[in-house]
Design a protein that fits this description.
Elements: H1 2-13, E1 40-49, E2 54-61, E3 67-73, E4 80-88, E5 91-99, E6 104-108, E7 111-113, H2 120-131, E8 134-146, E9 155-166, E10 178-183, H3 187-191, H4 199-215
Parallel strand pairs: 4-9
Antiparallel strand pairs: 1-2, 2-3, 4-5, 4-7, 5-6, 5-10, 8-9
């Protein structure tokens, strides 16, 4: 169904061949190979510091001699964890919370910052207990990903949580998060929701689904 929707959308926006006029067509430029070595970092300096963000200016020299200055968020080296909690083999739990960036409530998975020196799986279990009131007896590492690599090097570590048991730790959220159980065989309905749009949550969902299918 999703594939059909994508195909239909593609056909709707793609002009027919007859719509093109030969006199307006231009050949594509040849591919340009670039060096495999990273640009040389000439200078890194902090330009803005807030309660949770630190913005850096990075001056780079590329292999062709070009010098550019870019801005990025300073890396939080321990990273972030996002957890897909499985209530049973066919049901996962979602968290509904307010997201300041989009000024709206979104549906996603429990997530949070890994503290310095904290193990990733320990951090995942802590976030589960803080945000949705469950602990997991079984935790599996799925993968690491970046959200916006041009602006932030911080990695999000995706974790699958199984064998859940009720357990709650004090949370720092301004209000309790909503908890929504969802069936794995109804993913298309979830993707159709306007409040489920966080890219890393969508990636986590399909990785978790693949992992769970291997266990059946």
């Amino acid at each position: 169904m999703v594939g059909e929707m994508i195909f239909c959308a593609y056909n709707a926006i793609t002009p027919k061949k007859s719509d093109y006029k030969m006199d307006k067509m231009i050949s594509a430029p040849p591919f340009t190979e670039i060096g495999e070595d990273n640009p040389e970092i000439l200078e890194v300096k902090t330009i803005v510091t807030t309660q949770i963000f630190q913005v850096e200016s990075v001056k780079l020299k590329f292999s062709n001699g070009a010098i550019r200055e870019f801005e990025r968020l300073k890396m939080w080296e321990p990273g972030i964890v996002m957890i897909v909690p499985m209530l049973d083999a066919h049901t996962f739990l979602l968290a509904r919370e307010y997201a300041t960036g989009v000024n709206d409530y979104i549906v996603s998975f429990p997530k949070g910052r890994v503290e310095i020196g904290e193990d990733l799986l320990v951090a995942a279990n802590r976030e589960l207990q803080e945000e949705i009131g469950y602990a997991a007896k079984k935790l599996s590492y799925l993968c690491a990903m970046t959200n916006a690599p041009n602006y932030s090097p911080t990695q999000t570590h995706l974790i699958l949580a199984q064998d859940l048991v009720p357990s709650r730790l004090p949370a720092d959220e301004p209000e309790p998060l909503g908890i929504i159980p969802w069936k794995m065989n109804e993913i298309e309905k979830l993707l159709a929701r306007k409040d489920f749009h966080e890219a890393r949550a969508i990636a986590a969902l399909f990785l978790a689904k693949e992992q769970m299918m291997k266990q059946l």
